[in-house]
Amino acid sequence: MADTPHPPTNAPDFAIEARGLDKTYAARKKAPAVNALKGVDLAIPRGSFFGLLGPNGAGKSTFINILGGLVVKTGGQASIWGFDIDAEPRNARGAIGIVPQELNMDPFFSPMESLELQAGFYGVPAGERRTKEILEAVGLWDKRNAYARTLSGGMKRRLLVAKALVHSPPVLVLDEPTAGVDVELRRQLWDYVKRLHESGVTIVLTTHYLEEAEALCDTIAIINHGQVVACEPTKALVRRMDQKTLVVAPQSELAAAPAGFEDVQAQLRANGALAVTYRTSQHSVEELLDRVRRAGVAIKDLSIEEPDLEDVFVAMTSAQS
Ligand code: ADP
């Protein structure tokens, strides 16, 4: 038995690992081929709340759909919970629950029936089904016998979350889960997803909402044009942009940006304001204001502009395109 390969341990370091993942959608009649993923390397740590961030068309859904077995990759490797998606597709698929983007569901099944069917599909024995627990958790127990077509958009989305959970996967992927969901339902959904995360489920969230990713995710990968352009802890990603801009409205119009700001970026804006962009780790506002005064600029008004993930995102994705 010594040469029997060990099965992957129950707790791999990475919930999802992709190496050189490629996807080219073949050309069709009039549409040219699309190289949607170009050698994606991504390691999603077990237990993380991971954000896969990128603009529309970046390749997020393609990546997720390869993991879910809906799209066939054209190159590279991927594993879920240590199971290679080619070598051990059943185990790989059993380890992941995917909440799809679209609200496509059979209108004639009730939430109860949908979950039971899904559990049957995954081969969850009747005695191990958690239908009631899951429906209660997503707030649909009261609606358990209602036709899906009578459910509101938010309820349908929660039903999709419920369906993704029937086989108790250790990895839950939410593909753009809050598009079109109102604020209150969004909050409810996140409360529940946070609880799942606290219970040990690895969460992967794809989104193009930067604020959402910044608020929820501990690690963020940015994907653009089928390539990963950044992948690091959210804080580090934001810190990378530790720059702020001091904006000074002068009492009287300046002809040009004054001297004395060579080590930072100073420019005159079209509205006459002097904008000094600096790294917070290297300069203080105090020091810069002193310099502004020493340059003979009388200050009428001032403000400080801070970057957010949007700036990081724009900087990184524009560098690639
Ligand atoms: P995202 O989820 O980030 O919006 P997608 O993975 O949906 O990005 O799309 C990545 C690229 O692949 C886009 O250019 C898109 O038009 C293309 N694409 C997606 N699905 C298909 C498909 N079934 N056939 C052809 N091209 C596709």
Protein structure class = alpha/beta
Which sheet architecture does the biggest sheet show?
6 strands, mixed
Kindly give the count of domains: 2
**Number of helix segments?**
10
Percent helix among the residues? 25-40%
Q: Sum up the overall morphology in one term.
A: elongated
Q: How many strands? A: 14
Average residue-wise pLDDT: 88
At the first level of CATH, the class of the largest domain is Alpha Beta
Low-confidence stretches: 1-8
Radius of gyration from the alpha-carbon trace, in angstroms = 25 Å
> Ions, cofactors, ligands: which are bound?
adenosine-5'-diphosphate
Q: Quick one: CATH superfamily of the largest domain?
A: P-loop containing nucleotide triphosphate hydrolases
What is the CATH-assigned architecture of the largest domain?
3-Layer(aba) Sandwich
> What is the third-level CATH name, the topology of the largest domain?
Rossmann fold
End-to-end CA span: 52 Å
Q: Largest sheet, order of strands side by side? A: 6-7-8-3-9-10
SSE string, helices as H and strands as E: EEEHEEHEHHHEHEHEEHEEEHEH
Percentage of β-strand residues: 25-35%
